[in-house]
Design a protein that fits this description.
heterodimer, A: 112 residues, mainly beta, four-stranded antiparallel sheet, 49% strand, B: 110 residues, 11 strands, globular
Amino acid sequence: NAGVTQTPKFRILKIGQSMTLQCAQDMNHNYMYWYRQDPGMGLKLIYYSVGAGITDKGEVPNGYNVSRSTTEDFPLRLELAAPSQTSVYFCASSPGPYNEQFFGPGTRLTVL
Amino acid sequence: KNEVEQSPQNLTAQEGEFITINCSYSVGISALHWLQQHPGGGIVSLFMLSSGKKKHGRLIATINIQEKHSSLHITASHPRDSAVYICAVKDGGGADGLTFGKGTHLIIQP
């Protein structure tokens, strides 16, 4: 099993550009999460999903959108990138809300 | 909203020392997670606990629900234990994700 995979590993965007961060898992987990990690700060929840077709906002959703058309995939869309979105983004999955979470390797995004 | 505090923020120790990292939180939880973030950035789950104590190899995690406090211990520390250790909590209800502490940066010198 590959576990949780994320692409790309690194990306540099210009202000105002858009992009999609990809996340996939092959463990048949219903729950998937997007977090961002800023220097010196704890990870913060952006969006989460409890199953295909169901998504909800986390603590810091502004400037992002998500979709969940399949159990495996949970892409994160950035529209009109801003320097404040410079961060490391982690995708995670779990079988349920009270289980261990499995993390992807992260995507380092810089917006200039 | 839960507030998660970790101490110390940074810790440098010599190989072989007994290490303790502390985590406190402000609101009752359903579970507490200890995670390890490698120097390369990857995050792995070490423990998930809701009461008592768990042990895995040289790592021990304890939690005191009444005091809203958890500790992560490393026995016979080794340079390969150098990493950031992150405490995270799952609030009692809802399907949303974890609330994280800022992490403890541990360096074990040979």
